[in-house]
Design brief:
elongated, mainly alpha, 125 residues, two-stranded antiparallel ribbon, 6 strands, 51% helix, 4 helices, 11% strand
């Protein structure tokens, strides 16, 4: 399946929310399989994102990134270029093979429209 990186991150969030719910065994198993595959993808995405942003981040005297309240400090004059690069990055299509879910399997649980939207690419009607 083809996903934009942002779709993978949204799907990962929705799957993690489902992973905290009590589900029937078959659905729980499928969610666990999807979650495991997504975690591998998200790790790679985060590594690539970190690599992408490093040239735009302020560094201290030891060349370590400066982090304030858990957020990297951006070199102000590079902010627009970084934003453009990140928008392009999050819009990049990647191939991820995931198990699918049957819409009928999800009828016994309550989901928000936002969760359904994130799950749509892996739902079969």
């Amino acid at each position: 399946m083809e996903f934009k990186i942002v779709e993978v991150l949204d799907l990962n969030k929705a799957i993690n929310e489902l992973a905290d719910m009590k589900l029937n065994t078959i659905l729980a198993y499928k969610i666990a399989r999807i979650r495991k595959k997504l975690q591998e993808e998200v790790t790679t995405i985060e590594e690539n994102r970190t690599q992408l942003i490093m040239p735009y981040i302020k560094k201290d005297e030891n060349n370590e990134p400066i982090i304030d309240n858990g957020i990297y400090e951006v070199i102000e004059e590079t902010r627009k270029e970084l934003t453009d690069k990140l928008n392009e990055f999050f819009g990049t299509e990647i191939k991820v093979e995931l198990p699918t879910l049957q819409l009928k399997e999800l009828e016994s649980i309550e989901l928000t429209p936002k969760q359904i939207e994130a799950l749509m690419k892996i739902i079969e009607e």
